[in-house]
């Protein structure tokens, strides 16, 4: 009898143990596995813990927590990706440093400005960029807690730098945000403007001084001999014409460089254009006994262009060729196809241009021989006008020259089907 009782008791204990294991021990082990999986951002196959009501509720709560964690991770990833996209798209350089002047953030433009391969967060700024001006600017901003500006010059760029302090809730300075704006082009344009003003002033000063001097002479000496008076008036006329040419070229260049040059486009036969210009210049060629060779390829296509502006191109090129050619020399005009474009060139056998001067001849007011150019009445703007007209037609200019052997200026213009122009009026 006692043996049977013991068996019943043992069976009951086993049953109670199984129920306890199934409803309490096994579910909480499952809960522990779910927690480990969530901690590793690994989604379990199921969140059902089984067992009693409480483990099941815990499993459902863990599922909700996991889903929210996934949503938050996705939002953070999207935010980080958006921030990286914005930083990468910024043309200005961005640098953020902490109070110890360690880098916390830097974009690609900053790295490019200073020629850096990478900018590791946490690296001391002075180990990455050794620039005393930048270091002094950040130090002053951290010390004073006020915004500061400076300019930094690198081997390739000029940068305007703005430093703004970062503050915590107690208004203590915790770091500095630094913006780098590339002002290289602005500086270059400013230098061009200054050079332009200086060159115009210089070009105007000489003829104006001569005219003023002779006017004073005529006023103070009304009874000047006829021969001397004729000479003075001739000089005044020559310099007044020089002033007129200068003003006319300046106005032309200003219009070409404006946002609305208003080209009057039409179909232009380059060959007919060249023949017409050569006919207009016959007298000047004869006066200097110049031999003119016109070489026009029969397959030169019609181009879409402003015929008046192209005449200006040829006038300026021929004017230079005539001025710098010796009496009895040869001038050649050539038009042909060239890689889908129309090449129009004027060559002379004159004094030529040195290798060091050749790259600059299309600059405004640049003269290889300033004394001789002024003597011949040049304004120094002709080739600059040629370059601008070519660019407005979607083309470009080239120059070849050797001292003592002559010069070739070539204008390349797109064919009618590929022409690209701006500010144009169709006719």
Share in helix? 40-55%
* Termini Cα gap: 125 Å
Number of domains: 4
Category by helix and strand content:
alpha+beta
CATH superfamily of the largest domain: Histidine kinase-like ATPase, C-terminal domain
For the largest sheet, list the strands in their spatial order: 2-1-5-4-3
Instruction: Report low-confidence residues grouped into runs of 5 or more.
Output: 419-427
Radius of gyration in whole Å, from Cα? 41 Å
> Which CATH architecture of the largest domain is right?
2-Layer Sandwich
For the secondary structure, the number of strands is 13
> Average pLDDT, to the nearest integer?
78
* Highest CATH level, the class of the largest domain: Alpha Beta
CATH topology of the largest domain: Heat Shock Protein 90
- Overall shape: elongated
How much of the polypeptide forms β-strand, as a percent range? 15-25%
Give the number of helices: 12
Largest sheet: 5 strands, antiparallel
Order of helices and strands: HHEEHHHEEEHHEHHEEHEEHHEEE
Q: Topology, please?
A:
Layout: H1 2-39, H2 53-89, E1 93-98, E2 103-106, H3 108-113, H4 125-128, H5 132-144, E3 148-153, E4 158-167, E5 173-182, H6 184-220, H7 226-257, E6 263-269, H8 270-280, H9 282-287, E7 291-296, E8 302-305, H10 307-323, E9 330-338, E10 341-348, H11 370-375, H12 382-392, E11 396-402, E12 406-414, E13 424-426
Parallel strand pairs: 6-13, 7-9
Antiparallel strand pairs: 1-2, 1-5, 3-4, 4-5, 6-8, 9-10, 10-12, 11-12
Helix pairs in contact: 1-2, 6-7, 7-12, 10-12
């Amino acid at each position: 009898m006692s043996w049977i009782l013991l068996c019943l008791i043992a069976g009951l204990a086993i049953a109670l143990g199984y129920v306890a294991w199934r409803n309490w021990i096994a579910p909480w082990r499952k809960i522990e596995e779910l927690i480990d999986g969530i901690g590793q951002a690994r989604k379990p196959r199921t969140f059902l813990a089984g067992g009693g009501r409480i483990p099941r509720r815990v499993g459902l709560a863990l599922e909700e927590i996991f889903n929210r964690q996934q949503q938050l991770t996705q939002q953070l990833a999207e935010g980080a990706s958006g921030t990286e996209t914005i930083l990468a798209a910024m043309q200005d350089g961005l640098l953020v440093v902490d109070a110890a002047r360690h880098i916390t953030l830097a974009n690609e433009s900053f790295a490019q400005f200073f020629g850096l391969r990478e900018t590791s967060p946490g690296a001391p700024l002075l180990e990455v960029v050794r620039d005393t001006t930048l270091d002094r600017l950040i130090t002053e901003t951290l010390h004073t807690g006020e915004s500061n500006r400076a300019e930094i010059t690198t081997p390739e760029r000029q940068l305007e730098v703005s430093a703004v302090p970062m503050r915590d809730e107690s208004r203590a300075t915790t770091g500095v945000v630094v913006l780098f704006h590339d002002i290289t082009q602005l500086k270059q344009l400013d230098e061009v403007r200054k050079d332009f003003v200086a060159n115009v002033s210089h070009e105007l000063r000489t003829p104006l001084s001569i005219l003023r001097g002779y006017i004073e002479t005529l006023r103070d000496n009304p009874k000047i001999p006829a021969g001397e008076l004729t000479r003075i008036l001739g000089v005044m006329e020559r310099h007044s014409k020089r002033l007129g040419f200068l003003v006319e070229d300046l106005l032309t260049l200003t219009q070409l460089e404006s946002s609305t040059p208003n080209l009057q486009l039409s179909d232009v036969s380059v060959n007919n254009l060249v023949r017409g210009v050569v006919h207009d210049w016959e007298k000047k060629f004869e006066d200097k006994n110049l031999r003119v060779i016109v070489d026009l390829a029969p397959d030169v296509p019609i181009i879409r262009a402003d015929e008046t502006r192209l005449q200006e191109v040829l006038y300026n090129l021929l004017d230079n060729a005539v001025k710098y050619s010796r009496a009895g020399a040869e001038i050649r005009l050539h038009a042909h196809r060239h890689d889908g474009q129309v090449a129009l060139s004027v060559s002379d056998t004159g004094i030529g241009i040195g290798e060091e001067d050749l790259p600059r001849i299309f600059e405004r007011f640049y003269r290889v021989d300033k004394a001789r150019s002024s003597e011949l009445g040049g304004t120094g703007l002709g080739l600059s006008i040629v370059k601008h007209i070519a660019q407005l037609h979607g083309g470009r200019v080239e120059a070849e020259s050797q001292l003592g052997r002559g010069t070739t200026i070539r204008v390349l213009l797109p064919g009618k089907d590929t022409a690209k122009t701006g500010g144009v009026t169709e006719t």
